[in-house]
C-alpha cells in the first residue's frame, strides 16, 4: 500500500488527504471552465467597484487610475493559475492588494481557492497574513468616503467570509470522499463475506457428501470386488451381494438427492425432506454393515438414545459411519468394536477400534479427508476427536461430544 493510499484510510482528524481537483488537471473539464469564468467575473466585478471608488476621488491622478486598471486586470487574469499554485498566488495577491485596492477581488477569490484546494495549516498561515495586512491598505491608500475603522472591519469580514466558505466547501468534499470510500469498503467487505459464506457452504457440502457417500460406495466396491474374484460363488451368496449392491446404490442416490437439495432454493424441491440420522439410527447402520459381511461388535450403553440432541446424535452416527467405512477399506475381515457411552450432563463418548488386518488384501485408495472432516464435525458440535494407530497395529478413534443436562 502506497503512502497516499494509506492516508486515504485515516480519519480527517488525523490527516487531511489530497482531494480530487486539488492539483491542476492536464485537461480542463466543462465544470472547470465554468468555475474559472465565474471566479474571474466575480474578481473583476469587485475590482471594478474598487476602481470606481478610486476614480471618484478627484485628487487621484489619471495615471494612477490607469495603472490600477492594468494591475487589476492582471490580478484577475492570474486567477487562472489558482489550481496550480494556490499558495503562491494567494500570497502574491495579498501583498499586491496592500498597495492596489483594485486587486482585492482577485485576492478574495485566491484565498477562497486556497481554502478549497489546500489543507488547513497553509490556509491559516496565509489567512493570518491577509488579516494582518488589512489595516495597512487604508493607511497607504485611504478612501476619503470611508473611515479607517470601517475599511478595516469590512476587509476583515470579507477575508473571513472567503476563508470560511472555502473551508466549508473542502469539508464537504472530504465528507463526500469519505462516504465514497466507506461505500466501496462496504461493498468489498460484503463481497468478501459472500465469498467466505460460499466457501464454507462448499466445504460443508463436500464434507457431508464424503461422509454420506463414502460409506455406500465402499459397500459397492467391496461386494463388486467379491463378485469379480469369486465368479463361482454359490448363487445365494451372489444374490445376497447383488442385493447389497442394489440397496447401497439406491441409498447412495437418495443421499445424493438430499445433498443436492441443499443447493436448491426454497420451493425448488418437490419432495419432502429426508429424515436426518440420529443416535437411534446407529443400530440400523451396524445391521447394514453386518449384512455387508463385516464383523461389528456394538456396545451401546446409552439408556435413552432418543433423548440425545439431534445434532449430537447425528455427529455420532457420522463418526461411526466413517470409521466403519475406513475399517472396511483398510482392515477387511477384522472385527470392529463400536462403544457408545454417556448421558445427559456427562456428554456422549463414541470409541471405534479395529485390530491390524491379518490376511493380505487389495487396498482401496483413500484421500485421508474423512478423519479431517470428523475432527471438524466434532469441533463444530462443541466436542473433540482423537484418532491414531494402536500398539498392536490397529486403529482407534475416540470422540467426546456434549449432552446438556435437562
UniProtKB/TrEMBL annotation:
UniProt keyword annotation of Transmembrane present: yes
Domain DUF7134: 31-172
Source superkingdom: Bacteria
Catalysed transformations (reactions): ATP + protein L-histidine = ADP + protein N-phospho-L-histidine
Entry's transmembrane regions: 33-54, 60-81, 93-116, 122-140, 147-167
Entry's EC annotation: 2.7.13.3
GO molecular function, one term: kinase activity
Residue span, Histidine kinase/HSP90-like ATPase domain: 314-403
Coiled coil spans: 180-207
Pfam families: DUF7134, HATPase_c, HisKA_3
Entry keywords, A to Z: ATP-binding, Coiled coil, Kinase, Membrane, Nucleotide-binding, Phosphoprotein, Transferase, Transmembrane, Transmembrane helix, Two-component regulatory system
Residue intervals of the Signal transduction histidine kinase subgroup 3 dimerisation and phosphoacceptor domain: 202-267
Protein name: histidine kinase
Species name: Streptomyces durocortorensis
Taxon lineage: Bacteria, Bacillati, Actinomycetota, Actinomycetes, Kitasatosporales
Amino acid at each position: 500500500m502506497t503512502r497516499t493510499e494509506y492516508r486515504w484510510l485515516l480519519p480527517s482528524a488525523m490527516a487531511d488527504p489530497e482531494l480530487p481537483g486539488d492539483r491542476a488537471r492536464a485537461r480542463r473539464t466543462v465544470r472547470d471552465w465554468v468555475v474559472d469564468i465565474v471566479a474571474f467575473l466575480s474578481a473583476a466585478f469587485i475590482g471594478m467597484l474598487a476602481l470606481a471608488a478610486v476614480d471618484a476621488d478627484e485628487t487621484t491622478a489619471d495615471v494612477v487610475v490607469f495603472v490600477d486598471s492594468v494591475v487589476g486586470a492582471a490580478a484577475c487574469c492570474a486567477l487562472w493559475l489558482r489550481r496550480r499554485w494556490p499558495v503562491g498566488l494567494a500570497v502574491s495577491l495579498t501583498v499586491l492588494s496592500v498597495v492596489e485596492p483594485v486587486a482585492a477581488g482577485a485576492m478574495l477569490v485566491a484565498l477562497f481557492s486556497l481554502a478549497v484546494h489546500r489543507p488547513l495549516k497553509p490556509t491559516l498561515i496565509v489567512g493570518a497574513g491577509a488579516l494582518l495586512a488589512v489595516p495597512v491598505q487604508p493607511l497607504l491608500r485611504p478612501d476619503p468616503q470611508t473611515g479607517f475603522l470601517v475599511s478595516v472591519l469590512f476587509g476583515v469580514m470579507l477575508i473571513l467570509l472567503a476563508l470560511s466558505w472555502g473551508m466549508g466547501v473542502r469539508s464537504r468534499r472530504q465528507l463526500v470522499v469519505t462516504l465514497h470510500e466507506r461505500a466501496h469498503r462496504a461493498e468489498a467487505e460484503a463481497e468478501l463475506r459472500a465469498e467466505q459464506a460460499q466457501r464454507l457452504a462448499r466445504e460443508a457440502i463436500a464434507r457431508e457428501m464424503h461422509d454420506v457417500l463414502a460409506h455406500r460406495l465402499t459397500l459397492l466396491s467391496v461386494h463388486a470386488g467379491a463378485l469379480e474374484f469369486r465368479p463361482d460363488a454359490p448363487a445365494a451368496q451372489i444374490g445376497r451381494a447383488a442385493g447389497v449392491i442394489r440397496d447401497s446404490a439406491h441409498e447412495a442416490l437418495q443421499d445424493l438427492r438430499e445433498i443436492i437439495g441443499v443447493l436448491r432454493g426454497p420451493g425448488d424441491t418437490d419432495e419432502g425432506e429426508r429424515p436426518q440420522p440420529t443416535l437411534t439410527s446407529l443400530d440400523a447402520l451396524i445391521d447394514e454393515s453386518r449384512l455387508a459381511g463385516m464383523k461389528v461388535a456394538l456396545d451401546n450403553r446409552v439408556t435413552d438414545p432418543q433423548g440425545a440432541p439431534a445434532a449430537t446424535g447425528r455427529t455420532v452416527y457420522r463418526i461411526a459411519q466413517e470409521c466403519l467405512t475406513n475399517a472396511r477399506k483398510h482392515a477387511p475381515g477384522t472385527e470392529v468394536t463400536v462403544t457408545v457411552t454417556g448421558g445427559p450432563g456427562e456428554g456422549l463418548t463414541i470409541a471405534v477400534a479395529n485390530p491390524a488386518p491379518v490376511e493380505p488384501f487389495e487396498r482401496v485408495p483413500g484421500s485421508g479427508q474423512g478423519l479431517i472432516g470428523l475432527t471438524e464435525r466434532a469441533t463444530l458440535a462443541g466436542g473433540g476427536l482423537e484418532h491414531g494407530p494402536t500398539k498392536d497395529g490397529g486403529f482407534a478413534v475416540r470422540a467426546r461430544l456434549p449432552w446438556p443436562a435437562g
